[in-house]
Design brief:
Length: 196
């Protein structure tokens, strides 16, 4: 097994996503002398660097937002189990998704990186959930503690929110499996928007 964070005993990310995320790893190492390890503990360094890059020229800011989104996506994928889905290797990174294995959910992490930088919601949804679970998820999230704008537009804050979402949807799947006396389903390859 490799010592690299990209080579752990799980399926590696697509080269395109790994290269984008590696830009953040290099930037944080250069700025703070910290080695990013694709865990939630490193996200505060990403948040600090993001604050500094919000005033960067347009192209630099856009590239950093994409790289930060890729890093968050890979951190989520490794933490909760999932796969990257690139519609086409040459597709716009905004359209890349991370699909989770324990629940019918996907996120568009590059789009999320841009939302965190711009403080504007994108036209297309960032969170994609099987339609049958939307109401249950909305009910669970409405009971959660509200967060301020600064936390909402941070990579650490979004990780925490998505952790809650994965937990809720995974528990719904576990309960459905117990009720049907079957093992929990393994999701991932399918687009959650198409699951009924």
């Amino acid at each position: 097994m490799s010592e690299s964070p990209w080579g752990l005993s799980i399926t590696p990310p697509p080269v395109e996503a790994a290269e984008l995320a590696a830009m953040v790893v290099d930037a944080v190492r250069h700025r703070f002398g910290v080695e990013m390890d694709l865990t939630s503990d490193t996200l505060p360094f990403l948040d600090q660097l993001a604050i500094e890059h919000r005033k960067a020229p347009g192209g630099v800011k856009q590239l950093f937002a994409s790289a930060a989104g890729a890093y968050l996506g890979e951190t989520l994928r490794r933490t909760f189990g999932g796969i990257w889905h690139l519609p086409d290797p040459k597709s716009d990174p905004i359209d890349w998704t991370v699909r989770f294995l324990s629940c019918p959910m996907a996120i568009r992490p590059i789009a999320l990186g841009h939302e965190i930088f711009s403080h504007k919601a994108p036209e297309e949804p960032i969170l994609i959930v099987a339609p049958k679970l939307v109401d249950a998820l909305e009910n669970a999230l409405s009971a959660a503690s509200p967060v301020g704008e600064e936390e909402y537009y941070s990579f650490s804050g979004r990780f925490d929110a998505l952790h809650l979402v994965v937990d809720v949807l995974s528990e719904i799947e576990r309960m459905a499996a117990r009720q049907a006396k079957r093992p929990p389903k393994l999701y991932g390859p399918e687009d959650p928007a198409n699951l009924i």
